[in-house]
Amino acid sequence: MKTILLAAFVAILVSLFGTPVAIRIFRRRGYGQLIREDGPEAHLTKRGTPTMGGTVIVIASVAGYFAGHLLTHDPASPSGLLVLFLMAGLGLVGFIDDFIKIYKQRSLGLRSRAKLAGQIAVSVVFAVLVLHFPNQFDLTPGDARISLLHDIGPTLPLVVFVLWIVLLIAGFSNGVNLTDGLDGLAAGSAMLVLAAYVLIANWQLRNDCTSATPVTAHCYEIASPLDLAVVAAAALGACFGFLWWNAPPAKIFMGDTGSLALGGVLAGLAVTTKTQLLLVVLGGLFVIVTASVIIQVGFFKMTGRRVFRMAPLQHHFELLGWAETTIVIRFWLVSGLCIALALGIFYVEWLPG
Asked: Mind listing the pLDDT tens digit for each residue in 310-348?
């Protein structure tokens, strides 16, 4: 528990005091956000706001994780390191995308195929490595099976498992990216899901099959639940400190650097805590926003008409006249409801009877 608290505390400090430093550096170098001309008119006032703030989130998460371990002399685990690798790797893809936008002064960075190729490359490495590094109980960070609350179904062939994990990671990294359209929306929503993962991983630690006496039917075969709680707490702390400066009106944006990294850490935690399908409910807001884009594009191609005034969904409500802060707070509430439902699903098997 000390490692979890220290990781979160250090990450908060690094992010809270590191973000204004990043704002000054990015502003001095002219790393400002470019705004789409076809977007809501209110966004035009945000032109030039420093972006790539996700760099601070990644650095603060990594710093908090390692500081927590150093201060408590608790060794890091392959599970935690692999999730951090996924976070940093996708953050790097996002950083390249953000840098191209700034360098070429356009609202689009990497070509969609190049961006997806980068996400796939990082995801494939993670998916393969997660099946290695068994601990003293012969548990690896992940299993080649689909999971909900535990592993379900048969063991998947390696190729099928890798494809499934790539789909999961790409889906959620792009989902957070699509949600990152209003000040504080993605950071606040990700914080709520990360807080849920701190609770989930801590519960799995307390009901670990390797230490449960007696062993119950509901115990968890997770390689390193404590370290996964540390990763979630570090990322949570990093988002907390960043949100202080990203709240409306934002002094800095996370950019693709932050949104892809946060989507990656959520997907990585889902794989290593064996809650892959549960993440669809936990991250319900990201699923809803992504679905709005799919519906908009698909319906337009079929009929030539639009379902929403603009996609992603948050911009539809902007064009309806909702204030930005109203949309952000209400979307946070939707995210909270999704998380409450997911935690209910997670804990329901422990109810008597």
From this structure: 989 999 999 999 999 999 999 999 999 999 999 999 998
C-beta separation of 306 from 299 below 8 A: yes
d(CA 114, CA 283): 26
Residue the block writes with tokens 């990497």: 110
Query: Using 50, 70 and 90 to split pLDDT, how confident is the model at 126?
Result: very high
Q: Own/partner pairs for 311-317, CB < 8 Å, 24+ apart?
A: 312/178, 312/179, 312/181, 313/288, 313/289, 314/179, 314/181, 314/182, 314/185, 314/289, 315/39, 315/40, 315/181, 316/292
- pTM (predicted TM-score): 0.92
Is the predicted pLDDT of residue 139 greater than 80, yes or no?
A: yes
3-state secondary structure of 152: strand
Domain regions of the chain by residue span: 2-348
Place of tokens 């060794």: 75
Instruction: Tell me how far apart the alpha carbons of residues 180 and 178 are, in angstroms, rounded to a whole number.
Output: 5
Region 78-98 average pLDDT:
95
Query: CA 339, CA 128: separation in Å to the nearest integer?
Result: 29
Output the six-digit token pair for 105: 């002064």
Cα-based angle 107, 110, 115 (whole degrees, multiple of 5): 130
Nearest in space to 256 (alpha carbons), one of 113, 109, 116, 121: 109
* Residue linked to tokens 């710093």: 63
Cβ-in-10-Å burial (0-12, 13-18, 19+) of 302 comes to exposed
- Residues 212-252 have pLDDT tens digits of 555 566 789 999 999 999 999 999 999 999 999 999 888 99
Burial string for 102-111 (b: 16+ CB within 10 Å, else e) reads: beeeeeebbe
